[in-house]
Structure formats: C-alpha cells, structure tokens
Design brief:
Length: about 250
C-alpha cells in the first residue's frame, strides 16, 4: 500500500470537503434504495393478496358486511338503446270452447266505401273478449197449493219438492260459498255481508251468516270423525308442528 501524497493544507481541506460531499450523496442514495426495496416488498405482498382473491366471489351485502348501498346496480347508460328487430307480441290464446261466437261481416270497403255485402269473405282476425256475467241471486218462489178434499172434507196441501223444503231461504251453493269465504279466506262477518251485497246483490244479515256457519258444524264434525278414523286406521301418520287457530284455542 502506497502512502498518500503530501499535499498542501489548502488542497487537503478541499479534498476532505469533496469526500464528505461524496459520502453524503452516497448515504442519500442508500436511503433512497432502501425505501424502494421496502415499497417493492409491499407491492409484492399486495400482488400476492390480489392473486389469492381472484378465485373468490365479489363481496356483496348478501355475503359480507358490506352496506346495502354497495349492492345497488350502477346506473346504466342514458343513451337510447338501438331498436331491436320487431317480433310478434304475446297474445291471449283463443279459448278452445268459447261460450258464444259472433261472426262480423264487412259491409263496405274500408278504402273506397263500396258495398261488399255480397262478396265472399274469410276470417281475417279472431280474438276473444272475456267477461264475467252479471251475478244476481237466483230466487225460486215455491207456492204450495192446497184445498179441501171432496171425500173427507179435510184440507190438504202439496208436498214440497226435494231440495226446496220450507225453512232457511238459503240454498246449499250459497251456504257453501259463505263457509268458504269465512273459513278459508278468513273474511270477517261484517265484510262478508258487504261482499254478498256488492258482488251478488244479496242483502243478508250477520245473524243469518252466523246461522249458516253454525248449521254447518254438525256435518263437519261427522266428516272430521270419518277422516280421523281413516287416519288412525293407517300404519303411519305424518305430523306437522305448524299451529292452527281453531276458535279461541291453538
């Protein structure tokens, strides 16, 4: 190793100053490279994390703690969509057995107004108009005739026809409909009275509705007993824990 040259004091001071400046520059470069190495390490970890998430489903309010607002669909483009190719629209299918049919023949040409009543015509368009008929009570007035027997001089009266015996004026179909609306659809009595008046034009009191429901208790009990007997006669019984409100008991 050679010894450093003997320099004047002024030159030595300049050389020391230059070396110190060079040292500070090198230290700054080392600091910068250390920061870059740390950033590279952080980015590598982030890349590994993102690659691990590539196979996972996106986070939504349904599968994560993301707020509901994150699940809203982004607004679409305000530009109008291009018109698609026109296609036949959906039509009400024609009923296979219509109640009535109405054939309408043209009487005049829609272009020139010529009378076409005598011209052979074919069906150009067919469609159905569905409507419910007017519903009103079907009231049957039963008059039982009678008189005085010429033989025994006693009074006689005709026998009521089957199904039209005296008593309640309400027939079995009306009774069944009331029971269905009250028991299955759960319509209260006051509203059920309004339903019968508004839909059928039948003014019936809540008391009459109560009597109809009460009169059905005995036949239903017989049906329930028969069903219960058939269930108990089986080898297995399926049970359900779902409760049902009957009267005032669960």
């Amino acid at each position: 190793m050679t010894s450093p040259p003997d320099l004047p004091t002024a030159d030595k001071d300049a050389l020391i100053a230059a070396l110190m400046a060079r040292n500070e520059a090198l230290m700054a470069e080392v600091t910068r490279l250390s920061a870059l190495a740390a950033e590279v390490t952080r980015l590598a970890a982030r890349v590994a994390e993102l690659e691990a998430k590539l196979g996972l489903p996106p986070k939504t309010p349904g599968n994560s703690s993301a707020p509901p607002s994150k699940g809203q669909k982004p607004s679409g483009s305000s530009k109008p969509k291009a018109k698609s190719k026109p296609h036949d629209g959906a039509h009400w299918p024609l009923h296979p057995n219509p109640t009535t049919k109405r054939d309408v023949l043209a009487t005049a040409c829609s272009c020139c107004g010529t009378d076409v009543c005598g011209v052979a015509q074919v069906v150009c368009e067919a469609y159905d108009r569905v409507e419910i008929p007017k519903v009103e009570p079907d009231v049957t007035r039963v008059s039982l005739f009678g008189g005085v027997c010429p033989c025994c001089a006693k009074r006689f009266k005709a026998t009521p026809p089957a199904g039209l015996e005296p008593g309640s004026p309400f027939g079995p179909n009306l009774r069944a409909f009331v029971i269905y609306l009250r028991s299955v659809q759960g319509i209260p009595l006051a509203r059920l009275r309004d339903v019968m008046r508004d839909l059928f034009g039948l003014d019936i009191s809540e008391g009459a509705l109560v009597n109809i429901l009460a009169a059905s208790a005995t036949p239903f009990k017989s049906a329930v007993a028969a069903i219960k007997a058939r269930l108990l006669a089986g080898t297995t019984i399926a049970s359900d824990e779902t409760g049902l409100r009957v009267g005032k008991a669960n």
